[in-house]
Amino acid sequence: MVKLSDRLEKICSMIGEGERVADIGTDHALLPIALFERGVTRTLILSDIRPGPIEKARANIDRRLPGEVLDIRLGGGLAPLAVGEADVVIIAGMGGLLIADILSSDPEKTRSFGRYILQPRNAADKLRIRLAELGFVTFEETLATEGRFICEIICASPGGGLQPEFAPETEGLSAEISPLLIRKGDPLLPELLERKIKAADAVSERLTNAGAGKEQLLKRSEKRAADLRALLGSLESDGGNDGLPTVTENTYAY
Ligand SMILES: C[S@@+](CC[C@H](N)C(=O)[O-])C[C@H]1O[C@@H](n2cnc3c(N)ncnc32)[C@H](O)[C@@H]1O
Q1: Closest Cα to atom 9, ligand 1: which residue?
Q2: pTM value surpassing 0.90
Q3: How far apart are CA 195 and CA 138, in angstroms?
Q4: Mean pLDDT for all residues in the chain
Q5: Which residue lies with its CA nearest to atom 27 of ligand 1?
Q6: pLDDT tens, residue by residue, 193-230
Q7: Strand partners, 141
Q8: CA atoms of 36 and 238, how far apart (whole Å)
Q9: How big is the chain by its Cα radius of gyration, in Å?
Q10: Contact of 155 with 16, CB cutoff 8 Å
Q11: Per-residue pLDDT at 164
Q12: Which stretch of 61-65, 165-169, 193-197 has the lowest confidence by average pLDDT?
C-alpha cells in the first residue's frame, strides 16, 4: 500500500466511497493510487499539463497497480474534463493564483462539478477571495503537515448562488486565516500563526532598516503582526472556539 504524507492523507480522507474523482496536476499519482488501492473509488481521472509528470504517473501506476488501466489525460486545468464528469475535483500542490485562474477560466464548466478540494502551496488568501467572487461556498478547511510545511486544504462547492458564510475581505485577516479553522480549533493553527508572526516581524525589521519611504508598508506589516498576535492570544485564552458552535471534522462528508 502506498504511504501518503499527512497532507495527501487528509485529502484522501475527504473522498467518499464510489465518488467520481478528478486529480488535476496529478504528477506522481500517489493520491489516485491510494484511493484505488484502498477501494475508496475506481472512477478516477488523472491529468497533468506536462508530458513528464504523465509519464511519471504511468510508471507509478504500472509499478503499484500492475495490470490496472487508469484514465490519464494530458492537458491544462479543467480542459481535459467533460462537463459534469466528476463529483470531486482535486487541485493540490499548485500556487493559489494558478488554482484561482484554473477555476475562473470556464465558469460554466467549473460549476458543473460537485465540489473541489484545493490545496494551494501559497497565496491561499487570494484564492479564498477569488472563490468568494466566483460564488463558491467554502464548507471545510483543514491544516496538514508535509515536511517542514503547514499546508492549507480548502473544500468548496461552486455554490449555485448561495452566499459563502464567511466572505473574506481584501483587508484584515479573514482571507488569510479562515474563520472555519478558528471555529473548529484546528490543532495546527497556533503553529501556523506563530510562523506568520515570525515572518511578519522579519518583514517589519527589513522595512525599518530600509529607512525613509517605507513608512506605509511598515505600518501595514506591524498592524498585520499585531492582528496575528491578537488572534493567537484569543486562541490561547478560549481554546479558539470564539464562542461559536464547533464545525466537526465530518462537515464535508455529505
Ligand atoms: C507540485 S505538483 C503536485 C502534485 C500533486 N497534485 C500533489 O499535490 O502532490 C504540481 C503538478 O501540477 C502540474 N500543473 C501545473 N500547472 C498545471 C495546470 N494548469 N493544469 C494541470 N496541471 C498543472 C505540474 O505539471 C505538476 O505535475
Answers
A1: 93
A2: yes
A3: 24
A4: 90
A5: 27
A6: 999 999 999 999 999 999 888 999 999 999 999 999 99
A7: 154
A8: 41
A9: 20
A10: no
A11: 56
A12: 165-169
Q: What is the 3-state secondary structure (H, E, C) of the chain?
A: CCCCCHHHHHHHCCCCCCCCEEEECCCCCHHHHHHHHCCCCCCEEEEECCHHHHHHHHHHHHHHCCCCCCEEEECCCCCCCCCCCCCEEEEEEECHHHHHHHHHCCHHHHCCCCEEEEEECCCHHHHHHHHHHCCCEEEEEEEEEECCEEEEEEEEECCCCCCCCCCCCCCCCCCCCCHHHHHHCCCCHHHHHHHHHHHHHHHHHHHHHHCCCCHHHHHHHHHHHHHHHHHHHHHHHHCCCCCCCCCCHHHHCC
What is the grid cell recorded at 189? 493553527
Measuring from atom 24 of ligand 1, which residue has the nearest CA? 25
Closest by alpha carbon to 179, among 253, 91, 244, 96? 244
Q: For ligand 1, atom 14, name the residue with the nearest CA.
A: 25
Distance from residue 23's CA to the centre of ligand 1 (Å): 9
Contacts of 66 (CB under 8 A, 6+ apart): none
Atom of ligand 1 nearest to the CA of 27: 27
Give residue 94 CA to ligand 1 midpoint distance, Å.
6
Which one-letter amino acid corresponds to residue 63?
Answer: R
Q: Which residues line ligand 1 (CB under 6 A)?
A: 24-27, 48-50, 53, 76-77, 92-94, 98, 102
